[in-house]
Amino acid sequence: MGKVAKQKRELLEVTTTCVNCEGHLELNQRFCPNCGGKRMYNRLTWRNLFEDFVDRFLNIENAFLKTFIALFKYPEDVIEGYMRGMRKKYLPAFSYFAIAITVAGFASFVIKNWFMEDMIAAQTAIYANDDPVAEIQKSFTTNFLSWMMDYQSVVYFSFIPFIAIISRLVFWNYKRFNMVEHFVIYLYAYSHIAMIFTLLGLMVIWYQPIYQVFSFMGLPITIIYIAYVLKRLFRLDTGALVLKSALFGLVLFVLFILIGVVTFIAGVFLYKSGALEGSEFIEAIEKQQAAKRAMQEAATTIKDTIPLDSLSNFLFVFRF
Ligand SMILES: [Zn+2]
């Protein structure tokens, strides 16, 4: 094959239509005047595909790394920058969020495929091997964990608007940011801290005792980081920071109690009405209760682990 023919095959056709927005583009224009899209001259090769990958994910000059570092050093620059229309210097809020979701999805995949057994073993380690409750607790934990792995991103996404509303309430006397802007704050801040925590978690997951302790640090570390971001965004002094944090905690606490009560009442109502009959969850609980009753009737002394189980299952939701 001739050299010219080969070269031609490796070039893309130069047209007057933008591939991004289909707007008009002069033959000599490298960038579309309408959407700013860059014209590509070469057909994809492994080399330029790899370059694109490096460009988007790994490059030191790259917006991701810049955003990642700035969210530690001066998060207000990223967040307020985005609010002012800055889109090139740092990654836009939803791009950052999308990366965090991807990392969370990857972590779920790794855990589900390689570390599930270890996690279940660590979670149910308090039971003796011959304890009939152990088997049921194990199946409950298995169901719960795999549910968590499947829906983590959904749980995670729904948390952001929820926390933004609370934040707007807590800062009701500060006119600095409106509701949408509060949403953006958490899109960045929550994505950032959750992503770091997920990555660190993957590093220690091979050793369950550390991982179990580590995963319970998620909530306090998230709170500390978000407090730091808010302090810088609102230029809070220590007094105001303590006050706002306490208020935030109080509102969250009251809401969790309310949600807990509502869920409990709804649960009891559904259970009594028979709507949950035959569901795996109810069957697991009933089996667990039956096993406990059988043991108590056999006059074996057994520590009542039900409140403890419920508490640890409840707390599990707040871990990453
Ligand atoms: Zn265009």
Outline the fold blueprint:
Blueprint (H helix, E strand, L loop, with lengths): L2 H7 L36 H13 L4 H11 L1 H9 L9 H31 L8 H39 L8 H26 L3 H9 L1 H17 L3 H36 L6 H18 L8 H11 L4
Bound molecules: zinc ion (ZN).
The site of zinc ion has 8 residues, from loops.
Describe the structure in your own words.
This protein is an all-alpha fold and about 325 residues long. The protein has two domains: about 1-45, no CATH class; about 95-315, no CATH class. The protein has twelve helices and no strands. The chain starts with a helix and ends with a helix. Mean pLDDT is about 80; it is low at about 300-305. The chain binds zinc ion (ZN). Zinc ion binds near residues 20, 23 and 34.
What structural class do you assign from the helix and strand content?
Answer: mainly alpha
Choose one word for the global shape. Answer: extended
The count of helical stretches stands at: 12
Low-confidence stretches: 301-306
List how many beta strands DSSP finds: 0
Number of domains: 2
